[in-house]
Amino acid sequence: LFWPRIHTKHTHRLYSFSQPPLTMVIPVALLTLVATVGTSIQSAFSWVGYNRDSFGLNVGWRQNQQYFKRSYHMSWVGIAREDLKEMMSVGVHHTGNYLM
Questions:
Q1: Nearest-angstrom CA–CA distance, 56 and 46
Q2: Tell me, what's the pLDDT at 3?
Q3: Alpha-carbon distances, residue 4 vs 16, 17, 18, 47 (angstroms)
Q4: Percent composition of the chain: helix, strand, coil (DSSP 3-state, to 5)
Q5: pLDDT of 30-51, one tens digit each?
């Protein structure tokens, strides 16, 4: 940062750029440090929150997948049982007709 300072010796130059006084550099450096630390803390909290939310969604998706997998298996077993029952009843019916 350069701070303008009015020159009185040379009238052809209105402004000369020089270093700011030390009393201004220390607060600016301190504010920069505080802003950097604050931003780092905020980034860490948002990163942890994002990972927590992603983990929660992942667990929910896995539970949902397991539920549908088991539900599909149970419905498949039920359909297979019904088919076997119908085939058995047809076989018994044909055997009954044959014996008559």
A1: 15
A2: 54
A3: 6, 5, 7, 42
A4: 80, 10, 15
A5: 999 999 999 999 999 999 999 9
**What is d(CA 49, CA 55) in angstroms, rounded to the nearest whole number?**
10
Residue 20 CB partners (closer than 8 Å, separation 6+): 1, 2, 3
Which amino acid, one-letter code, is at 78? G
Per the CB < 8 A criterion, the answer to whether 17 and 4 are in contact is yes
Query: Are 31 and 37 in contact, with CB atoms under 8 Å apart?
Result: no
Using CA atoms in the order 18, 23, 25, 29, what is the torsion angle rounded to 10 degrees?
180
Residue 13: partners with Cβ closer than 8 Å, 6 or more residues away:
7
Distance CA(65)–CA(71), nearest Å, equals 10
pLDDT digits (tens, 9 = 90+) for 77-97: 888 888 888 889 888 888 887
